Amino acid sequence: SQPKTLAAKPHRPAYGTDGDYFSKPSTEDIFEAVYDIMHEASPFDFPKLR
């Protein structure tokens, strides 16, 4: 399969901690990206989430 990257969303972040929250990938985004890779490698051990 093709390599995958998980980058920040393309926009100007807000100042302070709001910028960290909205411009960085959330833990759910990271988990889903990693789980999709694991599902591709071993579909029986990692069934589709949705």
Question: What do you see in this structure?
Answer:
Helices cover about 45% and strands about 0% of the residues. With about 50 residues, it is an all-alpha fold. The protein has a domain at about 20-45. The model has no long low-confidence stretch (mean pLDDT about 80).
Question: Which helices and strands appear, and what pairs or packs with what?
Answer:
Layout: H1 17-23, H2 27-41
- Work out the helicity level: 40-55%
The largest β sheet comes out as: none
* Element-level helix/strand string: HH
Question: Count of DSSP E strands?
Answer: 0
Task: Give the low-pLDDT segments.
Answer: none
Gyration radius, in Å? 14 Å
Which structural category fits the helices and strands? mainly alpha
| Termini gap | 21 Å
Strand content: under 5%
Summarize it:
This protein is an all-alpha fold. Helix content is 44%, strand content 0%.
Key attributes of the depicted protein:
single chain; 50 residues; mainly alpha; 2 helices; 44% helix; 0% strand
